[in-house]
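name: query_chain
kind: protein
chains: 1
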Amino acid sequence: MSSFDKLLKEQLRITEKYLYFYIWSESDLDGVPGAEAEGTEAYPAYPAYGYNAAYISGNNTAYVQGKELGEGLGYKVAWDAGTKTMTIASSQTEIVLQAGSATARVNGTDRSIGAPAVLKKDSLYVPVRFVAEQLGAKVKTEGEDSLYSIEIYKP
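structure:
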Protein backbone atom coordinates (compact mmCIF):
# COMPACT_ATOMS: atom_id res chain seq x y z
CA MET A 1 0.00 0.00 0.00
CA SER A 2 1.42 3.39 -0.96
CA SER A 3 1.81 6.10 1.68
CA PHE A 4 -0.95 8.08 -0.08
CA ASP A 5 -3.35 5.10 0.08
CA LYS A 6 -2.42 4.60 3.71
CA LEU A 7 -3.19 8.26 4.47
CA LEU A 8 -6.57 8.02 2.74
CA LYS A 9 -7.55 4.76 4.38
CA GLU A 10 -6.16 5.04 7.90
CA GLN A 11 -6.20 8.74 8.68
CA LEU A 12 -8.97 10.14 6.49
CA ARG A 13 -11.07 6.93 6.48
CA ILE A 14 -11.59 7.14 2.71
CA THR A 15 -11.69 3.64 1.29
CA GLU A 16 -13.72 3.90 -1.91
CA LYS A 17 -11.90 3.05 -5.11
CA TYR A 18 -13.01 3.61 -8.69
CA LEU A 19 -11.40 2.09 -11.78
CA TYR A 20 -12.34 2.91 -15.35
CA PHE A 21 -11.46 0.87 -18.42
CA TYR A 22 -12.29 1.69 -22.02
CA ILE A 23 -13.14 -1.50 -23.83
CA TRP A 24 -11.84 -2.33 -27.29
CA SER A 25 -12.77 -5.14 -29.59
CA GLU A 26 -10.32 -8.02 -29.33
CA SER A 27 -9.23 -7.57 -32.95
CA ASP A 28 -8.47 -3.85 -32.37
CA LEU A 29 -6.46 -4.61 -29.26
CA ASP A 30 -4.51 -7.41 -30.95
CA GLY A 31 -3.28 -4.89 -33.54
CA VAL A 32 -1.67 -2.71 -30.86
CA PRO A 33 2.07 -3.06 -30.25
CA GLY A 34 3.34 -4.15 -26.83
CA ALA A 35 4.04 -1.86 -23.90
CA GLU A 36 7.55 -1.30 -25.26
CA ALA A 37 5.92 1.18 -27.67
CA GLU A 38 5.70 3.47 -24.63
CA GLY A 39 2.38 5.15 -24.66
CA THR A 40 0.00 6.27 -27.27
CA GLU A 41 1.74 9.02 -29.23
CA ALA A 42 2.21 6.81 -32.28
CA TYR A 43 -1.16 5.10 -31.77
CA PRO A 44 -3.45 7.74 -30.25
CA ALA A 45 -6.64 5.81 -31.04
CA TYR A 46 -5.62 2.73 -29.03
CA PRO A 47 -4.25 1.99 -25.57
CA ALA A 48 -0.85 0.32 -25.39
CA TYR A 49 -0.73 -3.13 -23.86
CA GLY A 50 0.57 -2.79 -20.34
CA TYR A 51 -1.68 0.13 -19.34
CA ASN A 52 -5.38 -0.37 -18.57
CA ALA A 53 -5.95 -2.31 -21.77
CA ALA A 54 -9.29 -4.11 -21.88
CA TYR A 55 -11.32 -5.83 -24.55
CA ILE A 56 -14.51 -7.70 -25.33
CA SER A 57 -13.97 -11.21 -26.66
CA GLY A 58 -15.88 -12.87 -29.47
CA ASN A 59 -18.21 -14.47 -26.89
CA ASN A 60 -19.02 -11.04 -25.34
CA THR A 61 -16.91 -11.46 -22.23
CA ALA A 62 -15.18 -8.28 -21.02
CA TYR A 63 -11.52 -8.82 -20.08
CA VAL A 64 -9.13 -6.56 -18.20
CA GLN A 65 -5.55 -7.04 -17.12
CA GLY A 66 -5.60 -8.92 -13.84
CA LYS A 67 -2.69 -6.89 -12.49
CA GLU A 68 -4.38 -3.55 -13.22
CA LEU A 69 -7.65 -4.75 -11.67
CA GLY A 70 -6.14 -6.32 -8.55
CA GLU A 71 -3.65 -3.57 -7.75
CA GLY A 72 -6.17 -0.87 -8.67
CA LEU A 73 -8.51 -2.22 -5.99
CA GLY A 74 -5.69 -2.36 -3.44
CA TYR A 75 -4.82 -6.07 -3.57
CA LYS A 76 -1.40 -7.69 -3.87
CA VAL A 77 -0.81 -9.35 -7.21
CA ALA A 78 1.80 -12.04 -7.84
CA TRP A 79 2.65 -13.66 -11.17
CA ASP A 80 4.29 -17.07 -11.60
CA ALA A 81 5.62 -17.19 -15.17
CA GLY A 82 6.47 -20.88 -14.91
CA THR A 83 2.89 -21.98 -14.25
CA LYS A 84 1.30 -18.91 -15.91
CA THR A 85 -0.64 -18.34 -12.71
CA MET A 86 -1.70 -15.04 -11.12
CA THR A 87 -2.65 -14.66 -7.48
CA ILE A 88 -4.68 -11.65 -6.35
CA ALA A 89 -4.78 -11.53 -2.56
CA SER A 90 -5.53 -9.65 0.62
CA SER A 91 -5.75 -10.88 4.20
CA GLN A 92 -9.35 -12.02 3.54
CA THR A 93 -9.51 -13.01 -0.13
CA GLU A 94 -7.27 -14.99 -2.45
CA ILE A 95 -8.02 -15.63 -6.11
CA VAL A 96 -5.72 -17.82 -8.19
CA LEU A 97 -6.15 -17.69 -11.98
CA GLN A 98 -4.26 -19.63 -14.62
CA ALA A 99 -3.89 -18.74 -18.29
CA GLY A 100 -6.21 -20.90 -20.40
CA SER A 101 -8.33 -22.06 -17.47
CA ALA A 102 -12.03 -21.23 -17.00
CA THR A 103 -11.72 -22.20 -13.33
CA ALA A 104 -10.38 -20.00 -10.55
CA ARG A 105 -9.50 -20.98 -7.02
CA VAL A 106 -11.23 -18.57 -4.63
CA ASN A 107 -10.23 -18.93 -0.98
CA GLY A 108 -9.29 -22.55 -1.63
CA THR A 109 -12.43 -23.52 -3.57
CA ASP A 110 -12.52 -24.07 -7.34
CA ARG A 111 -15.12 -21.88 -9.10
CA SER A 112 -16.13 -21.60 -12.74
CA ILE A 113 -15.39 -18.16 -14.17
CA GLY A 114 -17.36 -18.72 -17.36
CA ALA A 115 -14.53 -17.89 -19.75
CA PRO A 116 -10.83 -18.70 -19.48
CA ALA A 117 -8.16 -16.25 -18.38
CA VAL A 118 -6.11 -15.25 -21.44
CA LEU A 119 -2.39 -14.53 -21.79
CA LYS A 120 -1.73 -11.73 -24.30
CA LYS A 121 1.61 -10.02 -24.79
CA ASP A 122 2.90 -11.13 -21.36
CA SER A 123 -0.20 -9.92 -19.49
CA LEU A 124 -2.94 -12.09 -18.01
CA TYR A 125 -6.41 -10.88 -18.95
CA VAL A 126 -9.25 -11.99 -16.69
CA PRO A 127 -13.05 -11.88 -16.99
CA VAL A 128 -13.71 -8.59 -15.25
CA ARG A 129 -17.11 -9.22 -13.69
CA PHE A 130 -16.16 -12.49 -11.98
CA VAL A 131 -12.88 -11.22 -10.53
CA ALA A 132 -14.19 -7.79 -9.50
CA GLU A 133 -17.21 -9.26 -7.73
CA GLN A 134 -15.03 -11.81 -5.89
CA LEU A 135 -13.03 -8.83 -4.61
CA GLY A 136 -16.19 -7.13 -3.34
CA ALA A 137 -16.45 -4.58 -6.14
CA LYS A 138 -19.46 -3.55 -8.22
CA VAL A 139 -19.25 -3.49 -12.02
CA LYS A 140 -21.14 -1.11 -14.27
CA THR A 141 -20.86 -1.19 -18.06
CA GLU A 142 -21.90 1.51 -20.48
CA GLY A 143 -21.80 1.47 -24.23
CA GLU A 144 -22.70 3.66 -27.13
CA ASP A 145 -21.87 2.83 -30.73
CA SER A 146 -18.35 1.37 -30.61
CA LEU A 147 -17.18 3.00 -27.34
CA TYR A 148 -17.68 0.96 -24.19
CA SER A 149 -16.43 1.52 -20.69
CA ILE A 150 -16.43 -0.38 -17.43
CA GLU A 151 -16.60 1.34 -14.06
CA ILE A 152 -15.52 -0.69 -11.06
CA TYR A 153 -16.39 0.61 -7.60
CA LYS A 154 -15.27 -0.83 -4.31
CA PRO A 155 -16.72 0.64 -1.13
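note: The longest helix spans residues 3-11.
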